[in-house]
Amino acid sequence: MANPPSDKSRGVALALAFFLGIFGAHRFYVGKIGTGILQLCTIGGFGLWYLYDVIMVAAGEFRDSDGRRLVSWDPDEARNRAIGVPQELLEEIDALRAEVTELGDRLDFAERLLADPTRRPKPVDQP
Predict the structure, then answer these.
(1) pLDDT-based confidence at residue 1 (cuts at 50, 70, 90)
(2) pTM
(3) Which residues pair with 24 in a beta bridge?
(4) Number of neighbours of residue 101 by Cβ within 10 angstroms
(5) What is the pLDDT of residues 68-109, one digit of tens each?
(6) Whole-angstrom distance, CA of residue 16 vs CA of residue 81
(7) Cα–Cα distance between 49 and 38 in angstroms, integer?
(8) CA distances to 32, 38, 74, 116, 117 from 65, in Å
(9) Rounded to an integer, what is the distance from CA 86 to the centroid of its chain?
């Protein structure tokens, strides 16, 4: 059986590999402490190992310490996939968030209208 995808973000790993790869930061991030220290001591394997890792992360073939591929660009998506949250539930939560945001905006608008003294109705004179 194939390993499930990693819970680590491919986007974060790529950023770390690109900017701090010669120090092995991306390897520390995915849990490969031993090779991270080795990369730190050799300044990214004299630049060659660093370049190889950047290409592997960008191509989606880089693996974490458990042998699972880093496939998800979004850290939240990677975390949700790791804990097994169904996609339908995530979509429903996003829809509820949008509705609550819209209701909050409507409430703010109504409060502003009620607080504006120029918009209050004038009393009607009774005969």
Answers:
(1) very low
(2) 0.60
(3) none
(4) 10
(5) 999 888 767 666 665 666 778 878 888 889 999 999 999 999
(6) 21
(7) 11
(8) 5, 15, 19, 60, 64
(9) 17
- Encode the chain in three state secondary structure: CCCCCCCCCHHHHHHHHHHHHHHCHHHHHCCCHHHHHHHHHCHHHHCHHHHHHHHHHHHCCCECCCCCECCCCCHHHHHHHHHCCCHHHHHHHHHHHHHHHHHHHHHHHHHHHHHCHHHCCCCCCCC
Assigned token pair, 24 = 């092995």
Within a 13 Å sphere around the CA of 116, how many CA atoms are in the beta-carbon half? Answer: 9
Residue 66 near residue 31, CB atoms below 8 Å: yes
Structure tokens at 103: 């209701």
Q: Establish how many alpha carbons lie within 13 A of residue 124's alpha carbon, considering only the half-sphere containing its beta carbon.
A: 2
Please give the single-letter amino acid code of residue 44.
Answer: G
Q: How many CB atoms lie within 10 A of CB 95?
A: 10
